[in-house]
Specification:
By secondary structure, the chain is an alpha+beta fold. It has one domain (8-13, 22-96): Alpha-Beta Plaits (2-Layer Sandwich), CATH 3.30.70. 26% of the residues lie in helices and 26% in strands. The chain has helices spanning 26-33, 69-74, 76-88, and strands at residues 8-15, 54-59, 62-68, 91-96. It has a four-stranded antiparallel sheet. The chain is globular. This is DUF3579 domain-containing protein. Pfam families: DUF3579. InterPro entries: DUF3579. It comes from Hydrogenophaga atypica.
């Protein structure tokens, strides 16, 4: 269950039993499905980029999808789809905050 105060949740490509989730491109697939859910709604060409509310990434060598709480506010069914995907596939879900990369000085 995700706390109401969480700004972002990380769906990790590791199952509750510790196994790596397959297929290896699952994060890109999930984020691709969610690409039309974005601030201001879908627009021509929005399927060509990921939504800022559902971003695939790799953290510590683990594939993840970062799902922002704003998705829950704007499109509750899309949020439920992501959370149900994690639950149905027994993936680890962690509440966290994605920090921007430090810029070189």
């Amino acid at each position: 269950m995700v706390a109401p105060s969480a700004k972002e949740v990380f769906i990790q490509g590791v199952t509750l039993s510790g196994k790596t989730f397959r297929p290896s491109d699952w994060a890109e697939r999930l984020a691709g499905v969610m690409s039309s859910f974005r601030p201001g709604g879908a627009h021509p060409g929005s399927h060509l980029s990921y939504s800022p509310w559902c971003i695939p990434t790799t953290l510590g060598g683990v594939k993840c999808v970062v799902v922002h709480r704003d998705l829950r506010e704007a499109e509750p069914m899309a949020w439920d789809f992501c959370m149900n995907f994690a639950r149905d596939n027994e993936l680890q879900v962690v509440e966290a905050c994605l920090m921007p990369d430090e810029r070189p000085r």
